[in-house]
Amino acid sequence: MAATASLKSSLLLPCPISDFSGAALSISTQKRRRSWQPRGTRIQVSAAADSKNILVMGGTRFIGVFLSRLLVKEGHQVTLFTRGKAPITQQLPGESDAEYAEFSSKVLHLKGDRQDFEFVKTSLAAKGFDVVYDINGREAVEVEPIIGALPNLEQYIYCSSAGVYLKSDLLPHFENDTVDPKSRHKGKLETESMLTSRGVNWTSIRPVYIYGPLNYNPVEEWFFHRLKAGRPIPIPGAGNQITQLGHVKDLATAFVLALGNPNASRQIFNISGAKYVTFDGLARACAKAGGFPEPELVHYNPKDFDFGKKKAFPFRDQHFFASIEKATRELGWTPEFDLVEGLTDSYNLDFGRGTYRKEADFTTDDMILGKKLATV
After folding, report:
1. Residue 366 needs a FRET pair 20 to 30 A away by CA distance; which of 36, 60, 333, 340 works?
2. What is the pLDDT of residues 40-93, one digit of tens each?
3. Beta bridge mates, 203
4. Dist. CA 120–CA 128, nearest whole Å
């Protein structure tokens, strides 16, 4: 098996809800850590003969950045398939010059557009990859040329989404729960079905909400912008909606543990954090992670506003969380980061250094706060 792991001495208890009303967490541990090494789940390099020729579809933005580093450290030959619009490698905060040089010297690049199906077929057939990690695939039609080009493919490891599950009053979501064929992620469901019908040895990973350094979705960044500006944080409803976040580095570890793992063959795994959290608790957790004072939380009814095309809050306004028991049991995986520690890692290595993906936009906040003031 290409990746093995040793569990912590005791398994995590079933996910409790956390509202983060306790004492502030010291962040000195994160500041001392020069570079990322998985702690909670130890990944070992097996024999050189187990080295794989691996293609990563998308590897320069977020998940693929951390995944490709782990794969290279394990001794695999890694090729990133991208359009070439962004640098193929970038030095991560906390990564030494030597570590970055080592990674950059080993990773390969295949430039192209995955929508150019003929190019995909021709170029991949010439390379003969053993394993494909598909991080950015959204539709089955994008995956079919890859499968067609690699008849001897050993494993197709696919990044799906927990957003495929049908909304339910019975939570957490398990991998065999009913899915929603009308969800905005229906293309991922169709991809899983296509892989099954083609007889491919596939593994599908379904994250819930992902966070961490380099996150291009405004998840923790949305809260950090408001905390930095000293503004109240608008939260829909009563703020007791329960959700779940998983750190990108824990997700990358789970992806690697699926590689060559017989327990992962034609299987789906939910991947996220060990605890659930309320919307209010998440706001307080972000404040602790960044060393900000206790935030002022303003609750509102979304039905009272017309925000147009703007998104007033970064999460779906509902309970939404999934069980990770299958992944811990079958893959030997446990999350390294608890939520506050993970948010601290994200803040220290990204937003706290002045880097972020999107500028702050408080337009919807001002609409909410203006109406609140008018009714006082």
Report:
1. 340
2. 444 544 434 589 999 999 888 899 999 999 999 999 999 999 988 888 888 888
3. 157, 267
4. 12
Task: Kindly list the distances between the CA atom of residue 92 and the CA atoms of 95, 218, 261, 273, 327, in Å, as whole numbers in the listed order.
Answer: 5, 19, 29, 23, 28
pLDDT of residue 61: 87
Amino acid at 103: F
Q: Where are the beta strands (DSSP E) in the chain?
A: 3-4, 17-18, 44-45, 53-57, 77-82, 108-111, 131-134, 155-159, 202-207, 209-211, 233-236, 242-243, 245-247, 267-271, 276-278, 297-300
Number of Cβ within 10 Å of residue 152's Cβ equals 7
Handedness of CA 207, 218, 221, 170 (dihedral sign): negative
DSSP bridge partners of 202: 156
Residue with tokens 């803040």: 347
Angle at 217 between CA 74 and CA 189, to 5 degrees: 75
How many whole angstroms separate alpha carbon 294 and alpha carbon 304?
27
Backbone angles phi, psi at 137, to 5 degrees: -70, 135
Whether residue 154 contacts residue 130, with contact meaning beta carbons closer than 8 Å, is answered with: yes
Distance of CA 263 to the CA centre of its chain: 21
Do 104 and 26 touch, CB atoms closer than 8 A? no
